[in-house]
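Handover notes (outgoing to incoming on-call)

Open items:
1. AAT family amino acid transporter: sequence verified, structure written out, both below. Nothing else pending on this one.
2. Nothing else urgent.
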Amino acid sequence: MSEPDYQQASPSSAQPSNLKRAMTTRHLVMLSLGGAIGTGLFLGSGEVISQTGPIGAILAYVLGGLIAYMVMLCLGELAVHMPVAGSFGSYANKFIGPGTGYMITWVYWLTWTATLGTEFTAAALLMQEWFPQVSVWLWTIIFAGIVFILNISSTRMFAESEFWLSLVKVITVLAFILLGLLAIFGLIPFQGAETAPLFSNLTSHGWFPNGALPILSTMLIVNFAFSGTELIGVAAGETQDPAKNVPKAINAAIWRLLIFFVGTIIVVCALLPYEMAGLTTEHTVSNSPFVTVFSYIGIPYAEDIIRFVIITALLSAANSGLYAASRMMYSLSVAKQLPAVFSKLSASGTPIVALIVTMFGALPGLLSEQFAPETIFKNLLGIAAFTMVIVWMSICLSQFNFRRQWYQQGHHKNDLGYAAPLYPIVPILGFIFCTITAVSMALDPDMRAGFIGCLLFIAGCYLSYFLFYRKQH
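AAT family amino acid transporter structure tokens:
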């Protein structure tokens, strides 16, 4: 059967032949894992444990994983049908409206650019714990330079570097879960004792010490922990045989992430008392439960090992972020919604101007350590989390509208290269849960400034679209 009209992508999803299809399934899976496994797991997820209690945290991450899975199923259907560099910006443009597509593209660019600078700064601070005489700024410049070079070399070089950076994190998490389970079941000593506390710590303060409501109120943090999985959609435009590789990568990545996150939380909460299990939000590695558990098991240099892993996690997240944000600018330029220079490609097929400008967009994050670091850091993280949820909502709505129009044109589910199951339940539930998550940010007084800033940014995107680009459609 011939391809239907949808394959004729809108301007924002045009796919110049210069972008090389260099990624394989293993690259896609590791890109997704690398985007998601970061400091949120190693240092920051303790906020969820401290607010919800051990059982509540486990439930929160299971729910977060299911939400992410629903969103990724929707993305898989769209990405196989339209494997383009603009990804969900292009899908929103075609199946929601051109103004929303323009807004989503800019919002996703903001998501990664907001956190790019904080990743470099956090990595530099960790390096300073090893080399106190070396300036934070020098490490920041070195790390920014490394990530920029990896991105600008070629898509293949970026994908390969991300594969190995992500592998370090994956091996660490697997080792942590495996050794933790061995300690829990008394197969290896823990803190000098022959057996660990088994699972008694999980319920020592009751099932839900602060009630069940915090499970919902922490969903923004939890969903942000799973953010990065959608990078598969961005990379679909540069993937070999996307109809085969994209669905495989989505299924592999989501189930691995669910096991990694939930497994880690179970081990932390089972081995450490509730008071110690709350992972710190500070950058001090010694406060990480990974260090505590490894030390209690008897692994030498636990703090140095985890510091190295967290630095690779930060660089991996920055590597993925720069890639994703630059592809968004590239797609806007292809759509003639940014000057043509932003879609200019290097000899190796990377959007060089978009990469340079995105690096400059990371400056606010770099300044976070010099001016009110706590406030700026938390708000930047809040902005990144909120904008990510908005993008996820657009993915669900795009797939809902796409499938409805697909049926109206007389096509069948079996005609699709990949069809998300349980339509329309999956996109509707995904959209509702993401909406609840977005609203929860407004209820947090510490994140209210970021919430208002995000709404203003979204309004500004719509305004600029209707003022300057509406006539194109």
